[in-house]
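Records of this kind hold a single protein each, on a pair of labelled lines. With that in mind, the following record should read easily:
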Amino acid sequence: MFSMNISRDFTDCSEFGNRSCSDNSRSPGVRGVLYFSIAAAFLLTISGNMAIIFSILYFKQLHSPTNFLILSMAVTDFLLGFAIMPYSMVRSVENCWYFGMMFCKIHYSFDLMLCLVSIFHLCSIAVDRFYAICHPLHYASTMTMAAIKQITAVCWSVPAAFAFGVVFSEAHASGIEGYESLVKCSSLCPIMFNKVWGTVLFTVGLFAPACIMLGIYIKIFVVSQKHIRVLSQTHKHSKSDMKNELSKSKDKKAAKTLSVVMLAFLVCWFPCFFAILLDPFLDFSIPSTLFDALNWFGYLNSTCNPLIYGFFYPWFRKAFKYIVTGKIFNPQLRTTKLSSED
């Protein structure tokens, strides 16, 4: 996502030099360093999320409802790295949009959509963990593969309808003085949100889902602590009890890992969403360079997710090792047990 400061007193295209970009004040050396750094970030994003996608699809042990939600979210992060970051990189380094205003809208729509898809997935994963830990007897009958497919469809379709509808209708820019002239005259891809849609985006796209997820994970923590107290008061356990508790322990670990993923998302994206919320109330005075920096800070969330999985999940580290060493070409490896902890 991207916004920029605009002047409110222009009525023609003279200041834009016939749709030309302003001179880039960065030296070739600085631009080279920026290109190298950003390219490294989106290549890491693409490769890391491809490893998650391939691991979950390839190894049968990983075919679970939670992991399929993680798979869908990894696809989101992969697409952000593959289809969004390269164009945003050129815009950020060159201070110019070379790809036309129609593609600007398409690019921004996908950018906004993928961000919302991620947070929808995080909400869905939180609900999945809630049923697994707080209502384990109903989990298998509630979170079926059919239910996961329906949830995934909602996670993709609702953000897509919102993002493309708002951007292509230009409802997000309704009432912004000078926006139409800026679009016609400049080569800066100036997408902005007015007060109404900026508030809607912040509330529906970040604040409300964050509150829902926070409430769910607090409930999971309370239930987990209750289970620990019950266990501490019981001296003897049957094998069946021990097996059930081991399963609950794995669910708690998964919930803890995914809560870290949620926290990383909020830390990365909250500054950008908050700036979008404030900007129209500050008469669009927030510098475009600051918006750009906050936007890239949000993008880095897609880079961080595979690193989080690699740190917390032994199965991902082992699967990644198989991929790198080429052992996955052995068909019998599909059924191998990656780890005792899922």
User: Anything to note?
Assistant: Residues 275 and 291 are 7 Å apart (CA to CA). Residues 4-12 have pLDDT under 50 and may be disordered. The chain has ten helices and no strands.
